[in-house]
Amino acid sequence: MEPFWRQLAPDEIPTALRAEMLAHGEKAAKSEGTADAAGALSIFACAHRVREDEVSALVPHANNIVILGWIDRIAELHGAHAGAARETVARDGRMWFVARHEIDYLGESFVGDTIVIATWIEKLGRTSLTRATVIARADDGDSNAPKPLVRASSRWAFVDLATRKPAAIPDAVRQALVGV
């Protein structure tokens, strides 16, 4: 992992942010009729320090394309942590393709800010999954109560690289992603 990304242990995730994520997971699970999934919510999080090359030239806050890159990178790191790295699934002739991103920008981050980027699997289907991501400033005055800067929901399709059609997510990958 690059030096400017650091995986957080569950107890390092700010309490208020973790509570918000769990509440979000419970709400999603109830709307999907899978209330049991919320109790098993597995959050993967990293700390990241915003670099100078990640801000816009005209308005010096984190660039929205960079934020999209953070959403992709935390998904990649989560997959690798679960033993389902992109290189591994590619060797098996499969890959994750983004089908949809929905991003709510709620605040700004600036050069030098330490942010927490957290993700979890919100819904797991046969050939796709929906991943939630929250980005918050870790040092937001009260480190135990950071306010989200970004909330995102991304739908990822598991695709056979030879046919370019959806493929069933292997049981080992499914369990690794939700059980990490």
Question: Can you give a write-up of this model?
Answer:
There is one protein chain. The protein has helices at residues 15-32, 35-39, 64-81, 86-91, 171-179, and strands at 5-8, 44-49, 94-105, 114-124, 128-137, 148-160, 165-166. Strands 1, 2, 3, 4, 5, 6 and 7 form a seven-stranded antiparallel beta sheet that branches. With 180 residues, the chain is of the alpha+beta class. The protein is built from five helices and seven strands. The protein has a single domain, classed as Roll (Thiol Ester Dehydrase, Chain A).
Concise account of the structure shown:
With 180 residues, the chain is of the alpha+beta class.
